[in-house]
Amino acid sequence: MTASQPAATERRVDRRPRLRRLRALGRFLSGWLPRTLLWQTFLLVALLFTLVLAVWSQIFRYFEEGPRAKDVAQMVVSVVNLTRTALINADAGRRSELLIELAALEGIRIYPAEVSDEVQPLQDTRPMRLLIAEVRRNLGEHTRFASRWKTLDGFWISFRLDADDADEYWAMLPPERIAKPHALEWLAWGGAALILALLGAFLIVSRIGTPLRLVARAARMVGSGQTPPPLPESGPQEISVVARAINQMAGDLARTDADRTLILAGVSHDLRTPLARLRLGIEMSGAPEDEITAMVADIEEMDRIIGQFLDFGRGVPQEPLEQVDIRRMVLDLIEPYRLRGTLVTLSLPENMAELLVQARSLPLRRALANLIDNALRYAGTALPLDVSVEVDAEQLSIEVADRGPGIPPDQVDRMRHPFTRLEQARSNTKGAGLGLAIVERIMQSHHGRLDLLPREGGGLRAILRIPITASSSSRARMAASSGGVQGA
User: Fold this and answer.
1) Does 101 lie in the same domain as 7?
2) Is the pLDDT of residue 46 over 70?
3) Domain boundary among 127, 153, 181
4) HEC assignment per residue over the chain
5) How far is residue 46's CA from residue 199's CA, in Å, rounded to a whole number?
6) Mind naming one GO cellular-component term on file for this protein (predicted)?
7) Domain that holds residue 160
């Protein structure tokens, strides 16, 4: 290793804290930046206009200082020359009256100068330096300047009655004669121009943001299975092209959805009718009872799988929201399972004759039935299923708990996808793997969610969570305790 290599390594090590600080600063600034395209673009345009106005002001000021310094210097030189001439030509007895008139009418005061005078120099700025150089060029290098003489503030300049005279005098000019005129007016006009520019920038950017919001809303409606209203195809060419493409896509999807509905209706008729005839033929075949039972079970499983394919193929439920009595719906849905001998423990909120919630009745029944069927398929019928309903101020929860093998936590997200089953269930469990996918889609249509949680002691807790909206019944918004066991 050469001597330069350790030094390079040290430089790289020294850069790391600096890079970390820069990254931290970038993350901090990004947290304060607006998120929308409208305000991000407006902020950039506003910064650009402000920077341009500041640069233009500095350029104007730089090139305006020279001519203005010459004009002010010419005025100062003229005042000094006129004052000198008046003092020289005035009678000695009337000089005092002349000085009083200059102070009263012109604001110019004349005092004799001494070497020991206490003075405060002028500000060291470029305009003052230009002014001093121009005045000295006309009055001589001996000319002195001050912003305060003794205790008096003003623009002080020294002069001599004669170039060869050693006596000097101080002349004080009012500061407003030297100060830049109309500074506040220039600042006000510059601020007004900046405000008008920012208003114009906001209007320009909003012309882009509004069509983009309409496109985003249409895309969300298409993603949820709805047909959005046609977007206006007017405006700039780029926006109109996007709007036309969105309208064409929405129309194509609507036609595809109509064709899919027609195909599903045909499939339902063409497949289920032969299955019904096949079941009737098997039951009348005179075969042994156990063989008939097995074949009928296979036909029922085929019919159920066809039903799942049809449910999944219909897409997002399109039924309108209505007031649904969840208590009555769960009781009606559980009753057929009990009649078939399934052990079901049901827990409903107490002190509620009915539980009304805005929902889609048929899809919600289908979701709950899928959960119960899945629980029976994986857990069997030896142990009872626990079905419970809970409600609070924000959401309604319908839970189906079994004592089956459950779902490993790392497999929960995968099980929400269509045609997916657990690996250990592939060899001995029937089904197409669409049950949970259908439930997930139904929950999305209700702006709710499906939770798949492990159950203490073994098993699975499948919970339907539906948010309670402002239009829901006041009974549904009441917090109620669960625990009223209705039956087993």
Assistant:
1) no
2) yes
3) 181
4) CCCHHHHHHHHHHHHHHHHHHHHHHHHHHHHHCCCCHHHHHHHHHHHHHHHHHHHHHHHHHHHHHHHHHHHHHHHHHHHHHHHHHHHHHCCHHHHHHHHHHHHHHHCCEEEECCCCCCEECCCCCHHHHHHHHHHHHHHCCCCCEEEEECCEEEEEEEECCCCCCCCCEEEEECHHHHCCCCHHHHHHHHHHHHHHHHHHHHHHHHHHHHHHHHHHHHHHHHHCCCCCCCCCCCCCHHHHHHHHHHHHHHHHHHHHHHHHHHHHHHHHHHHHHHHHHHHHHHHCCCCCHHHHHHHHHHHHHHHHHHHHHHHHHCCCCCCCCEEEEHHHHHHHHHHHHHHCCCCEEEEEECCCCCCEEEECHHHHHHHHHHHHHHHHHHHCCCCCEEEEEEECCCEEEEEEECCCCCCCHHHHHHHCCCCCCCHHHCCCCCCCCCHHHHHHHHHHHCCCEEEEEECCCCCEEEEEEEECCCCCCHHHHCCECEEEEEEC
5) 9
6) plasma membrane
7) 62-181
Dihedral sign of CA atoms 204, 208, 211, 213 in order:
negative
17 assigned to some structural domain: yes
In a domain, 283, yes or no: no
373 vs 197, residue with greater confidence: 373
Total number of domains in the chain? 3
Do the domain assignments include residue 275? no
**Residue 457 and residue 364 in one domain:** yes
Tell me which amino acid residue 337 is: Y
Report the C-alpha gap between 442 and 429 in whole angstroms: 24
| Most confidently predicted of 2-16, 58-72, 269-283, 322-336 | 322-336
Q: Give the domain-ending residue among 181, 208, 226.
A: 181
